[in-house]
Specification:
The protein folds into 2 domains: 20-120, no CATH class; 123-176, no CATH class. It is 57% helix and 0% strand. The protein has helices spanning 20-25, 28-31, 43-56, 76-91, 95-101, 108-120, 123-136, 144-160, 167-176. The longest helix is centred in the last third of the chain and has 17 residues, at 144-160. It is elongated. The relative contact order is 0.11.
């Protein structure tokens, strides 16, 4: 096992999961540079950044439901990583979302599922909201870059809900706004 200050690892088991020390010491805000909030369109970016971290560090089994954490309670390394993921989620969401999902009994899968559910369970209402935002979006005093990014975030949110927005429609809305 690598010591907290070492850069290498002495793990020799090819079937072992990720090193808990590396996962624990990872600065998540450097990997997930957005805060998930109901009031802003950050869900798509937040989920994408976390999906990349899960793939990069082989952590998917903690959030995809393929492993039941009740059977892992005796595996100290697995439980350490699971607790770290929960901490990551809590530090990358707004205070309101934290109050909505926090529970001492949750594992990482439960927190991930709750957070994703808040943004996808009421898909029809969210689609209507994002369509309205997209077609009503105006540039006003913002720069073209800021306006483009706002439209792009709305398109990403719609895509995450299964709504395809063509490049032509995006460009048309950019010009009209």
């Amino acid at each position: 096992m690598a010591s907290p200050g070492s850069s290498g690892t002495t793990r020799t088991n090819p079937f072992a999961g990720p090193d808990p020390v590396i996962i624990r010491d990872l600065t998540i805000l450097g990997r997930v540079p957005v805060i998930l909030d109901h009031l802003t369109s950050t869900y798509y970016a937040w989920k994408t950044y976390f999906s990349l971290v899960f793939r990069e560090y082989n952590l998917r089994d903690h959030i995809d439901g393929s492993v039941d954490s009740r059977f892992m309670e005796d595996d100290e390394e697995w439980m350490t990583i699971d607790a770290t993921l929960i901490r990551w989620f809590y530090t990358t969401i707004s205070k309101d979302l934290f109050q909505t999902v926090v529970s001492a009994e949750n594992d990482a899968h439960a927190v991930w599922t709750k957070l994703n559910g808040l943004f996808t369970d009421n898909a029809l209402q969210r689609k209507v909201f994002f369509h309205s935002e997209f077609f009503g979006c105006q540039q006003h005093d913002s720069s073209v870059d800021d306006y483009w990014m706002r439209l792009k975030k709305l398109v990403d949110e719609l895509c995450d809900l299964g709504e395809k927005v063509s490049d032509e429609l995006l460009l048309s809305n950019l010009i009209a706004g």
